[in-house]
Amino acid sequence: MKRHVKIVVLAVIFIVCLSAYFYITKQKNLAASENPWPEEAEVVQIPSSVDLNDQQAYFVSSDSTSPLIISLHQWSATFEKYDELVDYAIENDWNYIRPNFRGPNKQVEAGGSDLVISDIDDAIQYAVQNGKVDEDNIHIIGTSGGGHAALQHLMTSEMEIATYSAWVPITDLVAWYGQSKVRGNFYSDDILTITESRNGILDINEARRRSPLYQQTPVDKAKDATIQIYAGINDGYDGTVPISHSINFYNKLVRDLDYGEDHVVPPEISSELIYTQNMTEQLGTQLLYGKRDIIYSKRINNLSLVIFDGSHEILSNEAFQSILDRYELANDGR
């Protein structure tokens, strides 16, 4: 009888252990399928140089001295949202960091604050200290809220950056508050929150303080950087950020950098692009790396604006390839 009981107990233990093994294995496989980040990308902790709060980031170090890509997350996202740029960085043996910079823009510490800018600076310093970074080739890429953060960094950080690549960026929080409120989406509430507005009335001064469009342009820094602004022609209709944000910021830089009034986007063209989502004067067949039609473009010196056939999105291949092409051209023959 005792022997029989012992066998039963051992059998039960075996079944429990086997079930636990299969459960744990299933959970690991599920976690792996839900986390598409490559194994080369490790999560790191970066203490803030301002308030000592830890900022998380995905980080990849290159095997040899190479450029650094800083990829900035979208308005409502965190650093954990998967980013295709990491794969391009790994494939080309580049350094890569995806900082959290105070997370989604739903708290006063986020949304273009001074803490956001210092967090981005801290992430760059971390990558330089822990990777193999060519410090003359540091490139910031951001989409939507990440584009907002990228251009706010351009205007307010003292760091020298080789490239700012801003895709469908928000540049004017005052305008975007009204645009979002009319559309009935939650971004207007987010803007009220980050600006500490009271009684549902926007604090316009604080919204401007967090908007790239209202910053004083650091002329020398801006002339030394390559500044690329991309917008999808359908954004604002099939998307949340009208292309006026990109056009108005481009025009501001043209004027502030004294590139000449001939190089701004004229009001009649801006209106046609915004309200008809098309251009009467066609450019002919021009494509972004063979994928999307270019509806309209302007370029002067280091500054460019591209309106492409698309919506509220980044074309990751174009974002990376345009930087890679210039890097390879500059280093050709070295």
Structure write-up:
- With 334 residues, the protein is of the alpha/beta class.
- It has 2 domains: 1-34; 39-330, Rossmann fold (3-Layer(aba) Sandwich), CATH 3.40.50.
- It has 11 helices and 10 strands.
- Strand 9 (292-300) and strand 10 (303-308) form a beta hairpin.
- The model is unreliable at 16-33 (pLDDT under 50).
Comma- or semicolon-separated keywords:
single chain, 334 residues, alpha/beta, Rossmann fold, ten-stranded mixed β-sheet, 10 strands, 19% strand
Measure the end-to-end span.
84 Å
The amount of beta strand, in percent, is 15-25%
Report the structural category.
alpha/beta
Number of helices: 11
Q: Going by CATH, what is the homologous superfamily of the largest domain?
A: Alpha/Beta hydrolase fold, catalytic domain
Q: In the CATH classification, which architecture of the largest domain applies? A: 3-Layer(aba) Sandwich
H and E order: HEEEHEHEHEHHHHEHHEEEH
Strand order of the largest sheet: 1-2-4-3-5-6-7-10-9-8
Rg, alpha carbons: 24 Å
Query: What's the level 1 CATH class of the largest domain?
Result: Alpha Beta
Overall tally of domains: 2
Give the low-confidence spans.
16-33
Total beta strands: 10
Helix content: 40-55%
CATH topology of the largest domain: Rossmann fold
- Characterize the overall form: globular
Give the mean pLDDT.
90
Largest sheet: 10 strands, mixed
